[in-house]
Amino acid sequence: MSELKLEQRAVTVSSAEVKPPADKRPPGPWRTAWKKFVQNPFAVAGLIILAIFIIAAVCAKWISPYDPTRIDMMFPNLHAGTDGHPLGTDELGRDILSRLLYSSRISLTVGFLVAFVSVFIGTIVGAFAGYFGGWVDTIAMRFVDVMNSIPSLFLNILILAIFGSKISYMILVLAFTSWMGVARLVRGTYLQLREMQYVEAAKATGVSHFGIIFRHLLRNATAPIIVTATLMVGGAILSESALSYLGLGVQTPDTSWGLMLSNAQEFMLTDPLQALYPGVCILTVVLAVNFIGDGIRDGLDPRMTTIPRRRLAQWRKKFSKSEI
Amino acid sequence: MTEYLVRRLFQSVLVLFLISILTFAMIHAAPGGPTQVFLAPGLSPEAAKVQAHNLGLDRPVLVQYSIWLGHLVTGDLGYTFKNHIPVGDILWPTVKNTMVLMGAAWLFSLLIAIPWGIYNSTSQYGFSDQTSSFVSYIGFAMPTFWFGIILQEYFSLKHDWLPLSDMYTMGKEGNMGDLFMHLILPVSVLTLGFLASYTKYAKASMLEVLGQDYIRTARAKGLREGRVIFRHALRNALIPIITILGLDLPILVGGAALTERVFNWPGMGRLFVDMAVAREYSVLMSITLVVSVIVVVGNLVADILYAIVDPRVQLGSKGGAAR
Fold first, then answer.
1. Is the terminal CB of chain A with fewer CB neighbours within 10 Å at N or C?
2. How far is B207 from chain A (nearest CA, A)?
3. Would you say the pTM of this structure is higher than 0.95?
4. Per residue in B92-119, is it b (16+ CB within 10 Å) or e — as a string?
5. End-to-end CA, chain B
6. Which residues in chain A touch residue B197, judged by CB atoms under 8 angstroms apart?
7. How far are the Cα atoms of A65, A78, A81, A273 from residue A84, in angstroms, in the given order?
8. Phi, psi (5° rounding) for residue B2?
9. Distance (Å, whole) CA A137 – CA B215
10. Tens of pLDDT along A135-169?
11. What is the similarity comment for this entry (chain A) (predicted)?
């Protein structure tokens, strides 16, 4: 009787021992990154702010009080808060708040699409250059040198002046002049990764070059690519605003923060506050995106462990033996 | 050293050559081709043909390119479209003005950034260090031209302390004091942009040197901290900054272009934007090339300086310091 009990207990113990590994698997790298990201107050704040801007941009149609293109010459240059215009009107009587909301659509779209396209170009060029090496690498990197030697603002303006200013062109042009950083980064990663043993194994089992580049290696290069992609969004928004400010980006029926700034500069004397709003929007969004990018970078970097100050103080109290 | 110099020089010339091809190809890739770009609109087909023949646009592309390149090398940049003025005549004065603005901003930001970076490296995470990282976050996220507009509104429209725009007040051309007053606002705008990165680089470079053994030795000898930092560490910490200054040149030139536009500074960037709006392609091509020459030469000089200043640099291996 007692033997049977013992046996039963043994069984239950062993089953309990088998189970935990299924539940308590070590957290994956993405989960760890997310956990670290959430602990970073700046990154979370950035995420919230960006989310607010995205929601505002998506719902611009419903929440903006007026049509952003409606010209009302009866009430130009109204100050903030008059006659139902929360932020006033511009020199043509267009409602500034509505224009800001509609601008956020274009600025955010351009920012994200440019980052996406340039990461796409950069990854492909960098992957081929790094994986194959030799003359492919030489040609690609020489091309990167050439592109890096022309200040991108000048190249953007030149291309837009030749081909005409359209939003779709602008996205392509901005992407065309900003993929070099990604290409260098991906090439560097691939140069290291291609020496790995699993690449050798994949080759031995007959996996094609294409398969190795995009199935086996790309996964291992994702982390740095994501980080640069995020940080690129901010740069793209800034470039878009610069081009629109110069009159070569977004054209008048549409509106963007940069375009609003160039209007505001002409009418600085009548309403100085007009220049403030679009600039603050750009600054906030880019700051938010950069904070998110930094948060992702720190989260994905296993060497970066941020120890909260309070915990550090606790440890000091607990383990420090000095009497000072 | 000579071998490195020759190779580096060859590389630079090659890059410039490729840039000229790229610029040339872009005009040819324009919708309608160069005929559309260079001929006056509204010409009859026959007249357009004659014009195209006179301009040499009916010749093979390679011939056109080599003729263009030949003119470029001898300093002939072509003529403007509208008034048929030689491009060089309107371009070179603006290059000089841009150099004045860029040089001033560059010098000023280095004068602030290097001491600030050094100080931050000695007192990490202190108030000054936190301030500098705050400034750099703002500097990276703020549109420079917007900062310019805000400064204009405050300093020249609200309180008439500083001139609003341009390089000289009317009738005071060549007056140094007047130039200085006009420089203050644009230089502060540009400085904020550069300060962000230069202070960071200076601090990082200094921290790296301060972690080395010979610094510990110097401290162990009982040298005063000031002597360790300025005599032993600073010299080595300044070396990597040279390269970064070279690599940052494109950003510098681009930023100067926007600032010039905001403050109506008669420089290359403003000319470029005006000419882009007016579709003056020969001027645009020339400015793109001049700017690229500035950047390539700047990088070359930085690399050579780096090799001269730092004897530890192993020339020849791994493609030299230029990567």
1. C
2. 18
3. no
4. eebbebbeebbebbbebbbeebbebbbb
5. 16
6. none
7. 9, 10, 6, 17
8. -60, -45
9. 40
10. 888 888 888 888 888 888 888 888 888 887 788 88
11. Belongs to the binding-protein-dependent transport system permease family.
Phi, psi torsion values for B312, nearest 5 degrees: -75, -15
Structure tokens at B20: 């000229």
DSSP code of residue A25: P
Q: Could you tell me which residues come within 8 angstroms of residue B247 by beta carbon, excluding any fewer than 6 positions away? A: B299, B302
Measured distance CA(B166)–CA(B213) in Å, rounded: 52
Whether A149 sits inside 8 A of B299 (CB atoms) is: yes
Tell me how far the alpha carbon of residue A281 is from its chain's centroid: 16
Q: Is the pLDDT of residue A8 over 70?
A: no
Task: Compare CB distances from A149 to B258, B276, B296 and report the shortest one's residue.
Answer: B296
Q: How far is the alpha carbon of B286 from chain A, nearest alpha carbon, in Å?
A: 11
Band (pLDDT 50/70/90 cuts) for residue B300 is confident
Six-digit token string for B51: 């014009």
For residue A132, give every residue at least 6 positions away whose Cβ sits within 8 Å of its Cβ, in sequence order, or none. A209
CATH architecture of B95-313: Orthogonal Bundle (1.10)
CB B150 within 8 A of CB B227: no
Query: Cβ separation of B146 and A148 shorter than 8 Å?
Result: no
Q: What is the ipTM metric for this complex?
A: 0.82
Residue type, A111: G
pLDDT for position B36: 63
Residue A220 in tokens: 């291992």
Which tokens is B214 given? 């010979």
CATH 1.10.3720.10 residue window(s) in chain B: 95-313
Interface mutation target, options B23, B145, B260, B293, chain A, most CBs of A under 10 Å? B145
- The residues near B143 (Cβ < 8 Å, ≥ 6 apart) are A238, A241, A242, A245, A258, A261, A279, A282, A283
Whether residue A274 contacts residue A120, with contact meaning beta carbons closer than 8 Å, is answered with no
Integer Cα distance of B256 and B95 in angstroms: 12
